[in-house]
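ok so i was messing around last nite and threw this chain in just to see what happens. nothing serious, just curious
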Amino acid sequence: MSLPAGFLDELRGRLSLAQVVGRKVVWDRRKSNPGKGDMWAPCPFHQEKSASFHVDDRKGYYYCFGCHAKGDAISFVRETENVGFTEAIEILAREAGMQVPARDPQSQQRADRRTQLSDVMEQVVQFYRLQLKTQSGEGARAYLQKRGLSPAAWDRWDLGYAPRAGLFHHLRDKGVALDLMVDSGMVVVPDDGREPFDRFRDRIIFPIRDARGRAISLGGRAMDPAAPAKYLNGPETPLFDKGRNLFNMGPAREAAGKGKPLIVAEGYMDVIALSEAGFGAAVAPLGTAVTADQLALMWRITDEPLIALDGDTAGMRAAMRVVDLALPLLVAGKGLRFALLPEGQDPDDLIKARGAPAMQAVIDAAMPMVRLMWQRETEGKVIDSPERRAALDKQLRALIMTITDASIRKHYGDEVNRLRQSLYGPVAEAKPGKLQWRPGKKATAPSGPTAAARASMLAGSSDQERLRVAVILATLLSCPEILPEFELELERMACHDPDHRDLRAAILRNAHQPDLRAAIEDSLGHMPLERLFAERHVAISPAVRRAGDAEVARLCLAEELAKLNARRGHAREIEEALEDWEDLPGETVTYRLGEAAKALDRAGRGDDDDKAVYDISPNGARLKREERDAFDALLAQIGRGKGQP
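result:
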């Protein structure tokens, strides 16, 4: 099968050999080191008990020290699936999310072309390295020394200098064809027929290499402060796709394999400064915002790359774009952390001013992505009203729902709810029997209700409140989809019963989980839920009996909340009346108590009670005509069922 140039390289680059092999073997946890991509298992190609089969995930090769089987992901699939080369490519391409190109008879020609372009790029790198050491590169050398880079560092990074002209003539004298110069992106042919000219002029040159160390393009830093672009990258070419490569990727991968943290900086000089200071696993995007392909490359190197962008407004905006990009791509074990540098400084500035220990301190203080997401949504905002809180909740909920992994989505919801509680503060819960402090008054608790009051309905109000709270909680658990509509009321609802208090907190904490009851069972166990739904008044509630019916649940919840608030308001009114008894005229207190009783009565009746038609029964009791007619019809139906005429 003839494939386009670079397809197999890209396929191997997108796949993790450890994941491909992991479907067929059980890793030896004692010998394996996932952080370094060093994995061991019993060989799948011959019978053995010891773990002699080795996978080097970073290099993409496997080897068995027993049967000497070796190869890459393609050969592994061929051997284990008993398929040919073409079928193995198709299997791996599907796993990597790539489309296998149609047969291309000119593939070999393009492969040869890429090899030629790679040779041209190496000649370009060497030419510019030599120019740095000539008289024309004097200003560039002075600049690099001013930035703290020694001649030894210039050589380590293959740094160079592009004079105002010279590359085109140099390559032409070496016999390089003009079309190769142009396709490499290093030479530009004017449309007006003038002589071709160099793309990079009067710039310090930074070679850009792929993961295998091959030069694929250049980056240039202008020496002239008035230059239109301070930094310039080579254009897209058959060798160079800026969205799928990282500066310093090969050396960074090797350093990360030795335990160094992978640090994602903004520019070439930041990467060089970090590496020279001992942070060898440093990379940078290539003139664009971080892309999904670049994130995948980072996660192949390490599970938790550290984003260390500049501490200015542009750097923070770039970090926030990474958050939005990464959320839908998160999977278990793969995340990001963010190192926030001092305002106005980049890694290069910080290291020069305060040294490597200061940079290490910033790395040690890096925050997880959920904290940066929270900071973006809350920093500089005054969230002091129900409307603003609701707007914040809506935005956070929308962000969390972009996470496709259910487990990560759950944990993000837990953390966001914890942060919300710390921002809003705990909901104040009224303590039974405790009076509110009033200015200018001495708070004295009443001696307690009389025997007659104890026998009244008011003394039993706490029991009725507990019943209503239980129904409210059970209704939300039976129909979680209406929870966002009543979340604010739930936060404000005081719960005196310990079980109810724990359930309310768990509901708020897991409000964004797809299976609310399962999430609560995970955190509290099954007993609080069993006790709640075992109560008779909960079991007969319409919203519980018709679980999942949003309309019934919504009506039931609104009614129960209204009755609960009215009863608690009535109790507060009585407390205040008792407190004011000595200072206000008796008729004023009586009027206030009467109005509170009316409000309680209105809340306790259904919406249609005031419009109902009543009949007087023989014993003098008032009966709703609608209910009486329904009862008569039921008795008639029972009579027919027994054969009565």
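not much to say yet. The radius of gyration is 37 Å.
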